[in-house]
Design a protein that fits this description.
Length: about 230
């Protein structure tokens, strides 16, 4: 049995057809770039360094994977920045948000242990076990933990999206983008952000509920009370 033959698409032969094809390609490129442009516009004046970020009660650290139960290097860099912000008095409480969808995978607890090793008291750390993606983490920070303002900590390729989404979720946000080695993971993350920008724009427009919402939790309020 012969394999079916696939015809290669034919390019338009007329100038008019070629012009329409070019216009369609350009329109597609513009539409593809709109979400990224929106993210840059929203987050443009809200990015800071750990040294000059405004003093804020809460820092939010987004999960970034575990290696053998320990924070991945990318996640460790985020947690190092959070510990520095706590030590310098720029934040009082750290909300760690990540994936705990399986018993054998617990990002928030691994993040908590790492932070306590680096000088952040356990009582100043609050865990969100249902931060399955950036939008879920931002919405839950607002609706579940009552966070109105926060410093967000992530790598540079992700921080703009985090700020844009938390702003859309009602959390007044500033972003601290931590340094990262330009390895395969960095390039993958940067490429992924191009695609994730489209989902982020849809989340900001349609504001879907997180995968898991649940009841309000007083963890952040209690931690801030001990800080006082």
């Amino acid at each position: 049995m012969r394999a079916p033959k696939f015809r290669r698409p034919r390019l338009p032969r007329t100038r008019r057809g070629q012009r329409r094809l070019v216009q369609a390609v350009m329109a597609g490129c513009v539409l593809a770039l709109l979400p990224a442009t929106w993210m840059y516009a929203v987050a443009g004046d809200r990015l800071r360094t750990a040294a000059d970020v405004p003093r804020t009660d809460v820092a939010v650290v987004f999960g970034a994977g575990l290696w053998d139960g320990e924070p991945s290097p990318y996640l460790a860099h985020r947690l190092d920045a959070a510990a520095e912000l706590y030590r310098t008095g720029r934040v009082e409480v750290v909300l760690v948000t990540g994936d705990n969808s399986r018993e054998d995978y617990d990002e928030p607890d691994a993040m908590r242990v790492y932070l306590t090793r680096h000088g952040v008291p356990d009582g100043r750390i609050v865990s969100d076990y249902a931060g399955f993606d950036t939008w879920d983490s931002c919405v839950r920070a607002k609706k579940i933990f009552g966070v109105d303002e926060a410093v967000l900590i992530s790598q540079g390729f992700h921080i703009r999206r985090a700020v844009a989404l938390c702003q859309a979720a009602g959390v007044e946000s500033y972003g601290v983008g931590v340094d990262a080695v330009h390895d395969a993971t960095w390039y993958y993350g940067g490429t992924r952000e191009i695609l994730a920008a489209g989902k982020a724009a849809l989340d900001a427009v349609f504001r879907p509920d997180p995968r898991f919402l649940g009841p309000q939790e007083p963890g952040v309020e209690r931690a801030l009370a001990t800080a006082g």
